Amino acid sequence: SLFATAGLTGQLGASSGMDWALAFFQFTFAAAAATIVSGAVAERAQLPAYLAFSALMSGFVYPVVAHWVWSSSGWLSVYNPVAAQRFLSCGVIDFAGAGVVHMTGGVAALCGAKVIGPRTGRFDADGQPVPMPGHSSVLQVLGTFILWLGWYGFNAGSTLGLDHGKARTAARVVLITTLAAAGGGMSSVLMHRFRVAGRTWDVTAMCNGILAGLVSVTAGCATVHPWAGFLMGGMGGCIYRLAS
Questions:
Q1: Which of 20, 84, 190, 198 would you label with 77, given CA atoms 20 to 30 Å apart?
Q2: Hey, how many other C-beta atoms are within 10 angstroms of the C-beta on 239?
Q3: pLDDT given at position 206
Q4: Taking 80 as the threshold, does the pLDDT of residue 59 lie above it?
Q5: What mean pLDDT comes out for the span 38-55?
């Protein structure tokens, strides 16, 4: 399905290097959609079950959603003139996969968590959540920085080239991605500081807010102003705090 998305259904000799690069790029997106789910079912899912899910997600679910939004014949695609006029009079712009990748993985993760249930000891007898802090804040921050760095390849790489015009777009994407991450981290840690008993500065809130900001701006990182990217990331951090 990924090769068909990239247009590699013909003779191998007729394919260009760009075709192969696009196929690998789409493979990484499909892998991201599947691995998002791993955190939601960690310690509670059997490995064969997760492997079966990963095959289903990357082989059938993700390619369908990617076709909806990114194909010239997709029913949500801004590249489909008929669909663009039918859906909000413009179609859906999802530059780097906020909906196609992250929302698809998030919905699947929510379904998996609902089916499997919470970790043992996660809730008390009254149904209230029991704090389960991580074992290493240092590793958590390191993991957040690694993901943040990877996001530049994720978002800026979606320009699919670095000629003059695309290089300008990539530069814009990098700036707005950075601002959104900063906005998400700031809003999340400030909400935790002033809304939670104890009034502490929590690095977990900062890290998760950064990731929420990154996800929030992934769809529009090539089309919004810098101030709007910062605002979108800040809103993502707030939504994370309110929903978590």
A1: 20
A2: 15
A3: 96
A4: yes
A5: 92
Q: What type of residue sits at position 175?
A: L
10 Å CB burial of residue 77 (0-12, 13-18, 19+) is buried
Residue 142 in tokens: 């390191």
- Distance (Å, rounded) from C-alpha 137 to C-alpha 204? 8
Cα–Cα distances in angstroms (integers) from residue 173 to residues 178, 211, 213, 218, in the given order: 8, 16, 14, 9
Tokens of 210: 């950064």
Pick from 140, 165, 144, 167: nearest CA to 156: 167
Q: DSSP per residue over 40-87, as a string? A: HHTTTS-HHHHHHHHHHIIIIIHHHHHHHHHSTT-TTBTT-HHHHHHS
Provide the whole-model pTM.
0.87
DSSP letters spanning 75-122: TTBTT-HHHHHHSTTT-B--SS-IIIIIIHHHHHHHHHHHHH-PPTTS
- Residue located via tokens 């993901």: 147
Number of Cβ within 10 Å of residue 204's Cβ equals: 17
For the chain, the farthest-separated pair of C-alpha atoms sits apart, in whole angstroms, at 65
pLDDT at 87: 67
Q: How far apart are CA 81 and CA 115, in angstroms?
A: 39
- How far from 188 is each of 18, 148, 185, 198, CA to CA, in Å? 40, 16, 5, 16
